[in-house]
Amino acid sequence: MQAPARHAGLELPPASAWLLPVIALLALTFVNPIGYMGGGGDDWHYLQGARCAVREGLCLPQTHWEARLPLVLPMSLAMRLLGENAASVQLVPLLYALAGLVLFSLNVRRLFGTTAAAIAGAVLAATPAISMHALQPMVDAVEFAWCMAALLAGQLALERRSRSIAALAGACLAVAIFSRTTSIVMLPICGLIWLQLPRDARQLALPFCAGMAAVFAAEAAAYWITAGDPLYSWRLMLRHARIPSTELAPWVDTTKSPLLNPDFIAGWRPSMGIRVHWSIDPVLNLLADPKCGLTLAGALGLAIVYRDVWRTDRLLRLVSGYTALHFVVLTYVLAVDPKPRMFWIEFASAAAVVAVIAARTWKTGRRLLPAALLVLILARGLLLSYDRPNPGNMAAVADAWIARLGPGNVATDEWTKRTLALTPGVAALPVQGGAARRYQLVLAERACPPGHIVAAQTWKRDEWAPFAWAREHALFIGPRLEPILCVIDRG
Prior knowledge:
This protein is mainly alpha-helical. It has 2 domains: 16-387, no CATH class; 391-489, no CATH class. It is built from 23 helices and 4 strands. It has helices at 16-30, 43-56, 69-82, 86-112, 114-126, 128-131, 140-160, 163-179, 186-195, 199-202, 205-227, 232-238, 262-267, 281-288, 293-305, 307-312, 314-333, 344-362, 368-387, 395-405, 414-419, 424-427, 465-472; strands at 410-412, 439-444, 452-458, 484-489. The protein has a 4-stranded mixed β-sheet with strand order 1-2-4-3. The longest helix is centred in the N-terminal third of the chain and has 27 residues, at 86-112.
């Protein structure tokens, strides 16, 4: 695919293609910088994998989370150099999020021009599913960054008919699959693109496949040496569906494969609680989810209202079609949990649709609807980023309480221990039940659990006046969930 020679509409400076998205992401992220969350989240497993690598240099993964080495190994390096703290744990996820955003914008620029790239990057950065988790050690940004690197290298390879860059593109896609196996969904899309290429460009498929094979061979060799099984990481991945999950209904038979399995598709807990029919529930919940719904619905709405722009842009239609295929295979063939974190590719495509239509309609004077949508997306991103409770605020108080009561007298529960895993005093506590202690430290969402409460504290911060007014009048913002830290006397 090659960009058209002329891009009509509003023109922005070349540097804005990457600079505007980076500024938007950093601004939204550091309004309320929250990284590691722990609790029942996957970031606990990535932290454990990184901790093991810090202690032992390199650990044989025991779970599919720990096997995601493109995240775990850089995290362990940062923790080794900077110590285990919030900054070292958040650094690698932020760098991946920035890299993925910049690479996405560069891809859009080559296809649709600088202005569309700048707007698309800013829209993607403002999508709360992206900005709210840019500091969190999760594999989402890792997978997205490597996929965007593969697409950009693929575009360059096609433009220059370069076999070496094509091999690089294949290697990048292999690392994306190595990061999270769901990136394998990109392979049928690559096949469809290949079918539409000129004859001389189709020859680049061989070095592309060779680049992929080289990465997979290196991984297989490493596991053959360390585990005696070249398919070790794949076996971990295939077993992941059998791991108990609170997100999956208890009636789902996890001994069966999730592939094309309606029980798995219907059994996932919907993010917004919408249940109509398993075939449409994922779509309805994503459209209603405040983390991503405005971006997705906005793209759909603009494509309908300005269908003349969408219909006349073949590249935009192709991108939309490939994205729809990606969503269908991911959701209904692989039967993944359809939460927003799984669909960065879809959000990126929606951001591109919004940006291209906004850029093309600006010059014709049809500016009101695209401009209003962009303002709403940015406002939504700012609002949700600002409004999140930060469990890290409890760290100093938790350590002070433990020191006052005596570490030998305090235990905690698994949820609190995982959530405050970066708090040294809490990390050293035993889990209640495994060790009988008089006091139990508990982090709760709304109220302390039953028992004699020795100490309790919530964190309420001064609120910006416009936000306070909007919350008071229930306009776009609801009551804030303030976590509470408690000490319960079990003696």
